[in-house]
Amino acid sequence: xxxxxxxxxxxxxxxxxxxxxxxxxxxxxxxxxxxxxxxxxxxxxxxxxxxxxxxxxxxxxxxxxxxxxxxxxxxxxxxxxxxxxxxxxxxxxxxxxxxxxxxxxxxxxxxxxxxxxxxxxxxxxxxxxxxxxxxxxxxxxxxxxxxxxxxxxxxxxxxxxxxxxxxxxxxxxxxxxxxxxxxxxxxxxxxxxxxxxxxxxxxxxxxxxxxxxxxxxxxxxxxxxxxxx
Length: 229
Ligand SMILES: Cc1cc2nc3c(=O)[nH]c(=O)nc-3n(C[C@H](O)[C@H](O)[C@H](O)COP(=O)(O)O)c2cc1C
Prior knowledge:
Blueprint: H1 3-6, H2 12-20, E1 28-30, H3 32-39, H4 43-55, E2 59-65, E3 68-73, H5 75-92, E4 100-106, H6 111-116, H7 119-129, E5 138-141, H8 145-155, E6 160-162, E7 165-166, E8 171-172, E9 175-182, E10 186-193, E11 202-206, H9 211-214, E12 222-227
Antiparallel strand pairs: 1-3, 2-3, 4-5, 4-12, 5-11, 6-9, 7-8, 9-10, 9-12, 10-11
The structure holds flavin mononucleotide.
């Protein structure tokens, strides 16, 4: 267990309760009687716990009288709460599924290059995916049912969104991205344009390099991508 928690371990639930009633930001007036009721301990125990929290430097108490007291969680108290929050965030997060999808290289109409060189797209790819995309997309045809199923499931995941834009002539749509490792070697992304002439059996992949050259790809060859967490 983390060292910082040891001193507070007996009173962590109370600290959490105080955070819930707003004592992380301002002094909050309450009483040991009320706390006793909520935490199902005797009033004496609640009172002792509050004193102990104060002695440990985790809360400040003021205006203590018969009717109650004003409580504020200190920086040290907040630090302990943040530690707990970070650990729970890591351990309780639903497990993120990874997807492996294979498809067969096909030649498209060559429009990918046009889209991948539009400046507002390029800029966002560079910012949001941390690479400057090679001007072109690799089209993969998904022939196996498992790959199609995984592609459908992947589409339901939260994507990185490359926002669309308008020019005088036309509208360019949003593009959903799911970062992947391609053939276990190259980092890139699956792109799913919200407006496309492709059917859902075609998956497009983009990378900072020319994937056809890198993997010496010809039409019909198999390429596998794996989503990166
Ligand atoms: C970044 C990006 C944005 C796109 N935006 C659009 C769009 O707004 N409208 C559209 O019809 N197709 C859009 N497409 C999809 C293309 O129509 C096409 O499906 C794809 O790029 C592959 O073209 P290809 O089969 O000619 O290789 C976009 C493609 C990319 C790569």
